[in-house]
Structure formats: structure tokens, C-alpha cells
Amino acid sequence: MELRDYIRILHKNWIAILVLLILGLAGGAAYASMQAPKYVASTQLYVSVRTEGAATGDLVQGTTFARQIVTSYVDVVGTALVLEPVVEDLGLDVSAQALSSRVSATTPLNTVLIDITVTDSDPKQAAKIADATAVSFANVVQTQLERPDAEGGASPVQITVTDPAAEPTSPSSPNTPLLIVFGGFLGLLAGIAFAVLRSLLDTRIHTLHDLEAITDRPMLGGVAYDPEAKKRPLIVHADPRSPRAESFRTLRTNLQFLEVDSDSRTFVISSAGPGEGKSTTAANLAIALAETGARVALIDGDLRLPRVADYMAIEGGVGLTNVLIGQIDVADALQKWGKNELYILPSGPIPPNPSELLGSSAMDRVLKPLEEYFDYILIDAPPLLLVTDAAVVGKKTRGIILAAASGKTKKPELAGAIRTLETAGVNLLGVVVTMLPTKGPDSYGYGSYTYGSTHTLEQAPTELTAAQAKPKRVRRTRTKVGV
What we know:
With 483 residues, the chain is α/β, with parallel strands linked by helices. The protein contains 19 helices and twelve strands.
């Protein structure tokens, strides 16, 4: 993954990241509020060696001895020998061992000082324990650890309190700002981890980069998502100046320049699975091609779940199936649509053996005269992963154009459809990405703008007039088309 991929992931999941960040901040604040406040009181002791009447050298030796021994005294502060008298004198309801976890002692480097620190939930109690510990420690050192040389004499080590403990005015913990920041940091990390993991586990097609990882065939076009697509599937006719209509014209242009040296202009449009926009792509592409003045035939080759007749608002009771079994001539089954040279061949009755019909020699006899008359022939075929119809009819044509829905088609499904075509020896011409979002990191700008007004002085027709919608026969005087 490249840096732009991570930026896209963060952009795409910024809401989840923000929510987890806020939850982390709230969690840190809640944790801080549940913690009992702790107060810290400290006292400082000075350790010296008695050198009364001694020379300067003895003083130096005494100071050196004090520095060496003070490190051992630090470990003595937290022992039961020092803390049991403190518990008894103050009447504490804890044992010396439990109290030792709240008492600590340190010594600055190369000094004879000892800092005793006590932590307690009561600030006054913390100061009392610190002072009592200092007194008990001095007593233990002077009477037990460093006993005087003679009875009634003074200990050679002297412990002096230089800084008595003061009652703390504010708690040392919890550090609420720090806990809130730490909670927010954990929430941010969790949000980023969630976004990256979600992206890694998401196997759907979203971007051109996803397609490049699956196939080296070109992306012929991108069709923007339209929530009203079911209500107005023929967007090129219903709203010809809309950004989505322009995306089909871009597809038309790319298709016109696809392998210009080839004689065949018969294309199969299919998809890996259902609901990926193959039928609407075929219908709108046919209308866009007819707008250029080309003679276009749109054949509904989906003999299992036909959609073309419904989208084009024509009678689909008689069509390709009747032609293949010899009941009707192909010229009589074709229906003219609109003002341009666009002809529709519906699927007709649903047969029990669609694959056999599409792969029969009768299909060759249907396509041959149509290719002689029409500039473009588009065949809407069933999904590749469900049935073999698209691969069967694809071998009889220039190749297949795959429709893949952004955010819906899964990478393994698209890869499986491509493998099916490779196994069958069918040429994959390219991929059309449908349902592209118009906003966000996956949009690539498709459908985000248009050039010129979307309305003309006269309102663009939103539906066919009665004269335009009325099916018309192909005139035999122009060409002789038959099986």
C-alpha cells in the first residue's frame, strides 16, 4: 500500500476515527473521575558522621563514609523495623507491609540526603506518616544499626530532619488532563487500526487501483451512482445533459476507439454477478451510440431474466428466442426505438435451454446479417459467474465488456469472471465501473460537475412520446435481413 492509499483509508473512515477518538477522550475522563485522589507528602533527612574535634582529614573521611552508607539507608526506610513503630504511634489500621507500598525513599546522587515520600488519600495523614517515618528511621539508625561505642555514648551517625513534611494542598493523582490525552491517543490508534483493518478485509471494488490489481485490461468508463436509477434507467434519454449521461458518452467514445482495426463491432456486455448495472449500461450505451448517427442494434441476450424490454418500454413477448427457433424472421422481430437508427431485439419467451440456443449455429445466422447492416451490435448477457451464456455468446463476437459496481462487486468475483473468460477463450475488452460515488475518496470526480446548463429553453423529454415509443419494423427495402 502506498501513502495515498492510507490517506484514502483515513479519508473514507474519518467518521469512525472521530467517534473512537471522542470515546477515548470520554473514557480517559471517566477513568480519571473514578480514581480516588492521592496526596503526596515528603520530608528530607541529612546523614552525617560525628567527628568532634577531628582534623580536616577525618572530616573528609566522615563525609565519604556518609555518602557510601546513605544508599543502604534508603533501603532501610521501607522495612518493618522502621514502619512498625509508625503504625503503632499513629494508630493506623494497616500493617507495616501494606504501609511500605505507600512509602518510598530516594537519595540524590553524590549527596548525604534522603528524601522520604508518602502517598495517602488524606493529605494530613500523608504528612503525619512522612514525619513519623523520618523520626522512626533516625531512631533505628542511631540506636540499632549504628550503636554508640560505649554505653551512654552517642551514635557515630547522626540523622537530622532538614525539611519537615508539609500538608499537600492538591492531589498528585489522578492527572486528569494526562489521562484524557492518553485516552484520546488510544482512541485515535483504535480508530486508525479499525480503518486499516476494515480496508484490508474489504474485498469490494472501489477504485481504479483495485481494478489494476486484478486485470490489465483498460477501464472503459465510470458511471456515477444515481439513487433514482430505478425510476429513470435511460438517463441518456431522460436527462441528456446530466453528468451520468455524459459518463455514458465517455464510454461511447472509448468504445469507438477500441481496437479500431477490427472489422467486428459486436460487443457483449455482462458482469460477474447480478445487480451490477450491465443492462442499464447496455441500454444507455446503445442510445449514446445512436445519437452519433450510427445504426445500432441492442439485443437482449439474457434469456433467463430479461430486462431490456422493460427498460426500453417495448413489447418483449416476441424476440430473440422466436428467431433462434425459426418462428419469425429477425427483421420482423426488430423494433425501432426513438428518432435515431436504434433497433431493439427483445429476448422473447424464456426458453428451457438458453445456453444451447445462444451457442447454436442459429445464433451465428442471426448475427451475420445484423453485422452487415448495423454499425454496432450490443448484446446484454447474463452474469458470468451464474451461467455460461455470456461466455458462449462472447466467442461469437468481438469480445465482452464487464460491468463492475463500485462498492458492490467483490474482487474475487471479478477475478473469477475474468478467469472464466480466459478459460473459454473469450476476449475481455475492458471494464466499466458503475455506481461510482460522486463524493468522497473513491469518486475520482465522476459526476461531480457538468459543463453547461442542465436545462435547455425547451424542457428535455423525460419519456418517449407515443409515436416514438410505438415499435416499428425494419424496412426490408433497405437491406435483406433474415435467418
